[in-house]
């Protein structure tokens, strides 16, 4: 009889909790939701960027109901991993009480891109794909190890 897998809890943090951390939360829950429970928050939350919603929808992940959250909402919760996905969040939130592991993986801010709608969409796609690739390498390897019983 196989025992139930206890999900690891992951909190992705960026400054505004509008794009990178939202996409990371959606990707981890979609790709590895059987092993991880992902959340996201910001040090200065704003709103979920419509381009992030659009490019996630393109790959079958709906984050349209997500909202930007302040890291203070999670202050009393324990996490196996706290991941900063922008350099500013790492600087303003270098320590998160209740975290077992800290990871920093900075991605460029697609919200800062200036261009027309097509170019902006392309920028969001590129950042989404970079986050997805990193999640597959970083968290996918852990899933494979767990599946092998390591």
UniProtKB/TrEMBL annotation:
Residues 8-141 form the Phosphotyrosine protein phosphatase I domain. Coiled coil: none annotated. InterPro entries: Ptyr_pPase (IPR023485), Ptyr_pPase_sf (IPR036196). GO terms for molecular function: arsenate reductase (glutaredoxin) activity. Its EC number is 1.20.4.1. Keywords: Arsenical resistance, Oxidoreductase. It comes from the Bacteria. GO terms for biological process: response to arsenic-containing substance. It is an enzyme of class 1 (oxidoreductase). The keyword Chaperone does not apply. This is Glutaredoxin arsenate reductase. The gene is arsC_2.
